[in-house]
Fold:
Amino acid sequence: MSLTMTPLITIILMQSGADTRFWFVLFALAAGAIMLGAICWDIVMAWIKRSRGRNWPVVSAVIDIVSVAFIEDNMPGMKAYPDQSYYKATLTYLYYNPEQQMGDYSRDFVNEDDAKAWANSYKGETVKVHVDPRNPTRSVLREDDL
Structure:
């Protein structure tokens, strides 16, 4: 919040009636609850991503294809905020269980050179992937296994 907005909000709250203050406080509480929910959502999703496939059987896979794609920030009307564009580096791996299967792992970067260097460092490498015992076409390359 800018320094010019703080006195403006103070003046509005001081000169307004109790009804306006009530709605302002209610709005502020709702905004805080939404922000807290978003933070908790990110924490829960990160935990799910870390623990997914942990107990599945492990097979060897070879990283066959590496790619880097530019993901543009195209949020309409949000140009007052910093650019949220990024580079997505993707490792595509092949494994046999019992037939040939394919999976991928992605990571986001701010800098294109960093994304390309990271992806190219894994080209042709053998890694361990966790395969769903109920569906061998589904696999997970966990960050711990890189």
